[in-house]
């Protein structure tokens, strides 16, 4: 079992420092060329891999140009264009509805506030944070996806289970200047080493400060279940 730093703030700083060294080029992996494409890609990424989304959006973004075209597209046709994406029927509805709102209420521009973004169909705080950070250069929170949830619980940074509460706690301990990068570092480490089912603790740069380290710890703090 690793030994965390004395405070959660100190633990968070240690995690950021080590992961930055391990993943110096960490950044968003979704492909997009404008704010609307970013918004759509993030909506599609819910419970779906970024790799799959990037394959699907390559032809999607070539077919539809601007929110007006998504807004007037038949929902069945849009769903068919997304049929390799998880929950593609629902996501097609979200995209069409969100684009209708963007056209009707925002002059065809993706809004730049948390409240306006979360009023769009299919957009929760996580999606809104991504769009604000990477589309508008506005950082007012921490994106909490499944990797961030898993790693922060395993590393003893939070005991919360709901993304909203995890974000609130992380914002108190992660240095302000790292709110955006913290998510990307967690995602890269979650994919490469700290996977959901079989983390490679023997090759982890955080093992000595991780209270969930497999082998020494009996419990996976992410799930609360025994290893």
Structural commentary:
There is one protein chain. With 227 residues, the chain is an all-alpha fold. The protein folds into 2 domains: 8-27 and 143-226, Orthogonal Bundle (Endonuclease Iii, domain 2); 35-135, Endonuclease III, domain 1, CATH 1.10.340. It has helices at residues 8-22, 35-44, 50-63, 67-72, 75-81, 88-105, 114-118, 125-135, 146-154, 163-173, 179-192; strands at 219-220, 225-226. Strands 1-2 form a two-stranded antiparallel sheet.
Q: What does this entry show, briefly?
A:
Helix content is 53%, strand content 2%. With 227 residues, the protein is an all-alpha fold. It has a two-stranded antiparallel ribbon with strand order 1-2.
Global morphology: elongated
Cα-based radius of gyration, to the nearest Å: 19 Å
Report the β-strand fraction as a percent range: under 5%
The strands making up the biggest β-sheet line up spatially as: 1-2
The figure for the number of domains is 2
Number of strands: 2
CATH homologous superfamily classification of the largest domain: Helix-hairpin-Helix base-excision DNA repair enzymes (C-terminal)
Counting H and I runs of at least 4 residues, what is the number of helices? Answer: 11
Helix content: 40-55%
Supply the CATH architecture of the largest domain.
Orthogonal Bundle
Mean of the pLDDT scores?
Answer: 97
Helix/strand structural class: mainly alpha
Query: What is the string of helix and strand elements?
Result: HHHHHHHHHHHEE
Largest sheet data:
2 strands, antiparallel
Q: What is the name of the CATH class of the largest domain? A: Mainly Alpha
What is the terminal-to-terminal distance?
12 Å
Which residues sit in consecutive blocks of at least 5 with pLDDT less than 50? Answer: none
According to CATH, what is the topology of the largest domain? Endonuclease Iii, domain 2
């Amino acid at each position: 079992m690793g030994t965390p730093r004395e405070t959660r703030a100190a633990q968070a700083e240690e995690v950021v420092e080590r992961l930055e060294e391990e993943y110096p080029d960490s950044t968003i992996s979704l492909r997009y060329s404008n704010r609307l494409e970013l918004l759509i890609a993030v909506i599609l990424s819910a419970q779906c891999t970024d790799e799959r989304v990037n394959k699907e959006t390559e032809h999607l973004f070539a077919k539809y140009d601007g929110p007006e075209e998504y807004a007037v597209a038949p929902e069945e046709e849009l769903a068919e264009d997304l049929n390799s994406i998880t929950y593609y029927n629902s996501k097609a509805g979200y995209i069409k509805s969100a684009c209708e709102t963007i056209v009707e209420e925002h002059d065809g521009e993706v809004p730049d506030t948390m409240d306006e973004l979360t009023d769009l169909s299919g957009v929760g705080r996580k999606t809104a944070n991504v769009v604000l950070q990477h589309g508008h250069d506005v950082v007012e929170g921490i994106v909490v996806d499944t990797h961030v949830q898993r790693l922060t619980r395993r590393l003893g940074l939070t005991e919360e289970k709901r993304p909203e509460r995890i974000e609130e706690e992380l914002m108190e301990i992660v240095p302000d200047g790292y709110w955006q990068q913290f998510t990307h570092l967690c995602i890269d480490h979650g994919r490469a080493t700290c996977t959901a089912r079989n983390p490679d603790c023997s090759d982890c740069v955080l093992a000595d400060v991780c209270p969930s380290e497999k082998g020494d710890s009996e419990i996976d703090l992410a799930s609360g279940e025994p290893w």
